[in-house]
Design goal:
It is globular, with a radius of gyration of 15 Å. It folds into two domains: about 35 residues; about 70 residues, no CATH class. A hairpin with a 5-residue loop joins β1 and β2. The protein is α+β, with helices and mostly antiparallel strands and about 120 residues long. It has a four-stranded antiparallel β-sheet, with no helix packed on it. It is about 40% helix and about 15% strand. Bound molecules: zinc ion. The site of zinc ion has 7 residues, from loops. Zinc ion binds next to loops.
Length: about 120
């Protein structure tokens, strides 16, 4: 069975679990039910970590549509909507090689969380 990312409806934790292709819910360590992140498959492990770290910094109680959409479905498409809605311009391909400009504070925080997650693996 393939590995999938799941996100808990109760505590928001994201974890991997083996699941049938048509499987739905898993149970989180907190006992809550977790739904599968359909658009963040195992081919996108780096994105999975990235998206989870963005979800961690997004305002949970915000009523902005782009924030609600991202938290409801943390996909790459909704990540792009979120970043646009927050006024953060994503880097274009190859742009990171240019001289760095001052990054927005949220991007820096997301990057630090991302690094912290990676170093734990
Ligand atoms: Zn949970």
């Amino acid at each position: 069975m393939p590995l999938y990312d799941f996100t808990c409806r109760v505590c928001g934790r994201t974890f991997e679990a083996m699941a049938a292709m048509d499987g739905g819910e898993e149970i989180c360590v907190c006992g809550g039910s977790a739904r599968r992140l359909v658009s963040v498959g195992r081919g996108y492990r780096a994105d999975g970590d990235w998206l989870a770290s963005v979800a961690a910094v997004a305002e949970k109680d915000s009523d902005k549509p782009h924030v609600r959409a991202f938290l409801a479905e943390p996909s790459r498409a909704n990540y792009r909507r979120w970043i646009r809605g927050e006024g953060i311009r994503p880097l274009e391909d190859g742009e990171s090689r240019r001289r760095a400009t001052t990054p927005p504070a949220v991007s820096h925080e997301v990057l630090e969380r991302f690094k912290a997650r990676r170093s734990r693996v």
